[in-house]
Amino acid sequence: MKVSEILKVKGNILFTVSPETPLLEAIDALAEKDIGSLVVMKTGVLVGMLSFREVMKAAHQNRGVISGTVGDHMDRDMLTISPETEINDIRRMMLEHHARYVPVLDGSMLMGVMSFYDVAKAVFEEQNFENKMLKAYIRDWPSEAEE
């Protein structure tokens, strides 16, 4: 299974902010939309990601005071994948890089964001489907008398 297949099911709603967005405004967006990350874009180009991880680091560094902009706190060195990336490769990369959210780029065009949840759900559904097919196959197995 490829990322492009998961994005077709998931949809392509993206929430973006600019690096100049006040951090508090970005936190409000995360909470109001019940999402775990925001894509940071500048003049149509992906420049970073902001997730609750970066928000918590900012709160810790400032002893609970939320200040600054998204650009001050965003992850600039995020992992990215393409629509052709296979699900098992995504799983491995997300685990190796401790990434919960990964932007999907087709060249320089942002296609979506894959979350750890999206990957887990896709793997679960794929395994569930395969399990049902195997059970159906075993149930319909011809007896020796029929052969």
Biggest sheet statistics:
3 strands, mixed
Compute the average pLDDT. 90
Order of helices and strands: HEHEEHHHEEH
Number of strands: 5
Q: Tell me the CATH superfamily.
A: CBS-domain
User: Strand order, biggest sheet?
Assistant: 1-2-3
End-to-end Cα distance, whole Å, is: 36 Å
Give the helix/strand class.
Answer: alpha+beta
Strand content: 15-25%
Radius of gyration: 20 Å
* CATH C-level category: Alpha Beta
Tally of individual domains: 1
Low-confidence stretches: none
Q: What overall form do the CA principal axes indicate?
A: elongated
Helix content: 40-55%
Give the SSE layout.
Elements: H1 3-10, E1 16-17, H2 23-33, E2 37-42, E3 45-51, H3 52-61, H4 70-73, H5 87-97, E4 101-106, E5 109-115, H6 116-139
Parallel strand pairs: 1-2
Antiparallel strand pairs: 2-3, 4-5
Helix pairs in contact: 5-6
